[in-house]
Design a protein that fits this description.
two-stranded antiparallel sheet; alpha+beta; 18 helices
């Protein structure tokens, strides 16, 4: 059982509310002079950050976060800001998360409604054995680097859990797409769990037994009001997805964690395998092509990171054997994976 959602698959038009930069602006203002000048240089005057309706491109938002980390020499900037987040900082979505009766409901709502915070993102919650996996990633792989956004998001979600459910909460494991660069002591304070890097997506993995524990009786009326408001925000710019786009989203969220077959994809989309195959054929593609396309693009990105190992990249892409990945990559590009990695590492 799972839920997964995304928006902004026209990646060039993916947007985010400029107010999402408010925690970053406050942190920079407290750390250095010239905060206003910095945001103005990014095409983001402070007046737009204080405007709840102003929007900016997702690519600009991510780039601003990365440049801000360089500006104040804080490589763990996203992590530090995420650890300070309060539910109200994330607007109605943060409040809705905080009043949920249990973690399963909270993460399901985050997957369904998180796009109210920003466009062009993919989020899903699903079961893997005894665990629940919440996955988050930016749909456009060309928006890179994006370390600050990933660490900010996962740290903020962990902070929401601890402030709204249990101060002692510990997930089982954290996954990040990017290289290992974070201060270990700070990392432990933020997550209190093992962290894996060079993964196919960013994830928080925790026990289903934790997710099912009831913490409160929910105020159903308030939850309905918040969900209605969030739905209005989403519907303002939501565009329909093609079947191909829906499968690209699911592949990006499931890769390396769940089986990706015609049968599992059809079940997720609530149609028969034959119907799914026919719809893909009408769109001039196939599941095999979409999976190969995603793996090839992701492999190129992961291999360019200095700490990447071919065996780890193979595992992140859902290959049980590095040799199978090696052959696939050679077929895609005419090169060995190690050649791409060594060039980028020089």
């Amino acid at each position: 059982m799972s839920s997964s959602h995304s928006r902004g698959l026209d990646h060039g038009q993916a947007t985010i509310r400029a107010a999402a930069l408010a925690p970053l602006a406050e942190f920079i203002a407290a750390s250095t002079k010239g905060c206003d000048a910095f945001f103005a240089s990014q095409g983001l005057p402070r007046t737009s950050i204080s405007d709840p309706y102003a929007q900016t491109s997702l690519a600009r938002y991510v780039d601003t976060f990365e440049k801000a980390a360089d500006l104040i020499s804080a490589p763990d900037l996203g992590l530090q800001i995420g650890m300070r987040i309060k539910p109200a900082d994330l607007g109605p979505m943060g409040v809705l998360f905080s009043i949920s009766p249990n973690l399963r409901v909270a993460f399901d709502r985050l997957s369904r409604h998180g796009m109210a915070l920003q466009d062009g993102t993919q989020s899903s919650v699903y079961e893997v054995g005894p665990d629940l996996v919440w996955t988050y990633r930016l749909a456009d792989i060309s928006i890179w680097p994006r370390r600050q956004d990933a660490e900010y998001t996962l740290a903020a979600v962990c902070q929401l859990v601890r402030s709204s459910f249990s101060a002692d909460w510990r997930p089982h494991e954290l996954h990040f797409e990017h290289d290992s660069q974070t201060d270990r002591a700070l990392l432990h304070r933020a997550f209190r769990a093992p962290v894996l890097y060079n993964q196919s997506a960013n994830r928080i993995i925790f026990a289903q037994s934790d997710a099912a524990r009831q913490y409160r009786a929910e105020d159903g009326g308030l939850a309905q009001i918040l969900e209605r408001h969030i739905g209005d925000l989403i519907s303002q710019s939501r565009s329909p997805e093609s079947i191909s786009d829906q499968l690209r989203r699911i592949i990006g969220l499931w890769l390396g964690q769940r089986p990706i077959t015609l049968a599992t994809m059809a079940a997720e989309l609530r149609m028969s395998p034959r119907s799914l195959q026919r719809r893909l054929s009408e769109e001039g593609t196939s599941l095999r092509h979409l999976l190969r396309e995603h793996r090839e693009n992701l492999a190129q990105t992961l291999l360019r990171q200095k700490s990447a190992r071919v065996s780890n990249v193979a595992n992140a892409l859902g290959y049980a054997d590095s040799t199978v990945f090696w052959r696939a990559f050679r077929n895609w590009t005419g090169q060995q994976p190690s050649a791409v990695h060594s060039v980028e590492s020089d």
